[in-house]
Amino acid sequence: MRSRNPLPAFFLSVFLVLPAFPACAGNVGANCTLEGKVLYGRVQVVEAFPDFRVQVVNAFPDLKVQKVNAFPDRCGRWQFVDSFPDFRIQFVNAFPDLRIQYVDAFPGN
Fold it and tell me: Per the confidence metrics, is the pTM higher than 0.85?
């Protein structure tokens, strides 16, 4: 009697189950963009209507962020401001659009 190979059934079940899970946070593009907005520049922290919901983590970030006082002109360099931002963020503890880690050097992906 010939036994049935379980691998095709396993792969079929994986492909059927994967779409049920939501996409994980942070699909940062190679050009340092998320949803068409660049992830550097002047950033304003808000409590409502953000462009991105951000979670600060210590490991496995989507983007490494360096706080700067001037020239936020490269990927991951953020200057926090109170007015005229390039984009707005809201800090959250769950379900972020982007996970960041603060660094002192080498910001970016």
Answer: no
